[in-house]
């Protein structure tokens, strides 16, 4: 699939997404339109379109006469996201295990190897990025149902935000994730759809619980 050329608004949204994911723009904080447009050297129209894209990703709220606010993170939202998105991932994972062909998975296998090297080097932030590229590539390559692909890709930034919370809260989370990724690849290559789905569900539940624990600790502080 050819790479899509991003519009200016999409580039702005991508830039702001990264700041929200990493917590530079904290939950509940305001994003002042004029200041941001000036600092990014873009028009307010382009910035407003970027805000609408972020709203569709559930990362910001557009509040009439009050501006743009970064969405809060609460336990119910986290549970809803993981329950729904990993249901979609399970469907995709089963499809990959059942239908992959030679030449379709070799680069993904190599990415899992890259994840292992990054983990050994303690470069967890880069590993986090590679893991999400893995998911994005797999989705675009194997999700034949366009609605499935659209739902997964639309929710990936929110998942990235929550998984970053997990990574900051417990760095051992990536060790667990890596072992599941490695096991998942073996089960995909063995065309074991049920085991692959079990791997996906284990990964999602493990990460969800870490995020919920992190939120509980923040609320108790």
From TrEMBL:
<dbReference type="InterPro" id="IPR008920">
    <property type="entry name" value="TF_FadR/GntR_C"/>
</dbReference>
<keyword id="KW-0805">Transcription regulation</keyword>
<dbReference type="InterPro" id="IPR011711">
    <property type="entry name" value="GntR_C"/>
</dbReference>
<dbReference type="GO" id="GO:0003700">
    <property type="term" value="F:DNA-binding transcription factor activity"/>
</dbReference>
<keyword id="KW-0238">DNA-binding</keyword>
<dbReference type="InterPro" id="IPR036388">
    <property type="entry name" value="WH-like_DNA-bd_sf"/>
</dbReference>
<dbReference type="InterPro" id="IPR036390">
    <property type="entry name" value="WH_DNA-bd_sf"/>
</dbReference>
<keyword id="KW-0804">Transcription</keyword>
<feature type="domain" description="HTH gntR-type">
    <location>
        <begin position="6"/>
        <end position="73"/>
    </location>
</feature>
<dbReference type="GO" id="GO:0003677">
    <property type="term" value="F:DNA binding"/>
</dbReference>
<dbReference type="Pfam" id="PF00392">
    <property type="entry name" value="GntR"/>
</dbReference>
<dbReference type="Pfam" id="PF07729">
    <property type="entry name" value="FCD"/>
</dbReference>
<dbReference type="InterPro" id="IPR000524">
    <property type="entry name" value="Tscrpt_reg_HTH_GntR"/>
</dbReference>
<protein>
    <submittedName>
        <fullName>GntR family transcriptional regulator</fullName>
    </submittedName>
</protein>
